[in-house]
Structure formats: C-alpha cells, structure tokens
Design brief:
Blueprint (H helix, E strand, L loop, with lengths): L3 H16 L3 H59 L6 H11 L8 E5 L2 E10 H14 L3 E9 L34 E9 L2
Antiparallel strand pairs: 1-2, 2-4, 3-4
C-alpha cells in the first residue's frame, strides 16, 4: 500500500517527466490518452448497447413465437379441462360406431369400465387418429397397448383384391383400405371409459 510520501514522490516524478516533454510530445500523449479513453468508452458502454439494439428485433420475434406457442398450449389445456362430460353409454356408442374407420378386422368389446379394441391389419395412421379422437370425443384413455407390425397387407385391401394393381388408386380414408406401403398394425388396445 502506498504511503503519502510514496504518492507524493510519484506525483513529483510524473510532473518532472511531463515538464521535460516538448509541446509536440505533450500533444501526442494527450491525443493518445484521448484515443484510449474513447476506446474504453466504446468497448465498455457503447458497443454492448449497440449490439443489444441490433439483436433486439430477432430476439423479439423469437419471444413472440414462444409466446404464441405458449398461448396455443394454454388454450389447448383449457379446452381439455373444460371438455364436456359424457356418459359411459355415449362413450361406448362413439367407440362402437367409429371402429369401422379402422377396417373390417377392428372390433371393440366392453367389460366394466374398460373397452378393448382388437385390430387386425389396421393402418397405423388411422389407429393414431382414432386414439386421439377417442380421447377427445369419448373421453376414453388408452391404458395398455400391445401392437405389432402386421405383414398381412392383403387383409386391409377391399374385398376381391389380393394385392393393389398399379392402375388403381387406393383411397386412404375409406374403411377397409390402405395404401400399398402403409404400415399395418395388429394387436389390442385397452381403454379406460369415463
């Protein structure tokens, strides 16, 4: 730590060194000190503020996108919370009517508060869509699933066709049909009824 006498000695030495400089050197040292001061001010205060100002629009767009996603998820959560309660009978009726969308091999059986969906060569996309609608419309929640890839593509084709021919378009939305390369499932899904 500097004592007052040491500080005084340093001040005296600086004044002596400054006094020995020519006016040209004093001017150059002054300009150098000003340049260092401006560089420090730019680096510590102005550059970060300018960078933040330039990045603000992109960051605002990201935040707006996140806000919209959160609001959409919030609305979806509220709609799920406010879903209308339906009776067990209405739920069973919906499940029984809608199994035809999964093909001729789809059957539903109800025992107590559980419904078991049996599948044989049902298109995977249709099964996923059906499970989503069963949750939303019938308030039936899947609690167990045992599904396997079905190698029997012929079972999902319309009656009278053993395999698709290249000249015939296959309707993916019609019951009991599947695209030639569609993933077909067989097995069972157990749903809990409301």
């Amino acid at each position: 730590m500097s004592t007052p006498s040491t500080w005084h000695q340093m001040q005296t030495a600086w004044h002596q060194a400054w006094g020995q400089r020519s006016p040209r050197e004093k001017g150059l040292l002054g300009v150098g000190a000003l340049v260092l001061l401006l560089a420090g001010l730019w680096g510590l205060a102005l550059a970060p503020a300018l960078r933040t100002w330039q990045e603000a629009p992109a960051q605002q767009a990201r935040l707006d996108s996140q806000t919209q996603t959160m609001q959409r998820l919030q609305a979806q959560a509220k709609s799920l919370q406010k879903s209308t309660l339906i009776s067990r009978n209405e739920s069973v009726q919906w499940l029984e009517k809608s199994t035809s969308e999964l093909g001729a091999g789809a059957k539903i059986s109800v025992q107590g508060d559980r419904a078991t969906l049996s599948l044989d060569a049902a298109p995977a996309e249709a099964v996923a869509r059906w499970l989503s609608l069963a949750r939303e419309r019938a308030l039936a929640l899947p609690i167990q699933a045992q599904l396997q890839h079905s190698p029997d593509a012929a079972a999902a084709l319309p009656k009278g066709k053993s395999k698709p021919d290249n000249n015939t378009a296959i309707n993916n939305t019609a019951p009991n049909t599947a695209a030639p390369n569609a993933v077909l499932l067989r097995g069972s899904v157990v749903l809990r009824l409301p």
